[in-house]
Amino acid sequence: MKHIIAILLLLCAMPLFAKEGVVQCGNLIYAGSKTSRCFSDEFLSTVQQRTGINTARRFRAVRMDNDELFRFPFVVMTGEGNFTLTAKERENLKKYVEGGGFLLASAGCSSAEWNRAFRREMQALFGNQSLQPIAMNHPVFSTVFPITELKAGKQPTSGYLEGVTHNGKLVIIYSADGLNDSENSRNCCCCGGSELGNALQINANILAYALLR
Question: What CATH number has the domain bearing residue 155?
């Protein structure tokens, strides 16, 4: 109950991020035309059902190089293959997360090329504050669902999350394993990648954490 009250109070103080009390989450377009087409939005409805937070049921597409980015409290980014962000995209992304926005990123189908590109971009933007492993006792694993392990779908070992921290709080969470929740995505599949089996619950927790920080 304390978490729900805190979220509602936060939304009242974020007029740029929530229009008429509705939390709108963004689906990033980046590096020209790359997009998060296969990232399931099912967790948005799950958060609303579990917490009463009024979330829009679908992502809204937003360009990383557009100032409209700053109107969203939470955005997702995924894809496959290599990519390079433009100077404007890097500038916007850094300003966005350091100014209160939150990025959830995941390598589509566990794409090794996308993973390398994302790590390269994070290193360029944040240096020594770049991606670090997130311990399983972190609050992000208990906001909505109690999560004690990350179930890596087709691999014998468990997955893990990494994050970028700013002023003591996570502002970016990343999974080299899939968080796309392809089971609930339309016309998308994991394509042999190591998708996390409890991705829906993980994503719901991450969204709640992002709003509670």
Answer: 3.40.50.12140
The CA radius of gyration of the chain, in Å to the nearest whole number, is: 16
- pTM score, two decimals? 0.86
30 Rama class: left (phi>0) / alpha (psi -120 to 50) / beta: beta
pLDDT in tens, the chain (213 residues): 444 444 444 444 343 444 457 889 999 999 988 987 778 888 999 998 998 888 888 999 999 999 999 999 999 999 889 999 999 999 999 999 999 999 999 998 888 999 999 999 999 999 987 899 999 999 999 999 999 988 766 554 567 899 999 999 999 999 998 888 767 666 655 555 567 878 899 999 999 999 887
Per the structure, the count of domains in the chain is 1
Torsion region of 18: left, alpha or beta (phi above 0 gives left; psi -120 to 50 gives alpha): beta
Query: Domain range spanning residue 83?
Result: 2-212
Amino acid residing at 142: S
CB 36 within 8 A of CB 74: no
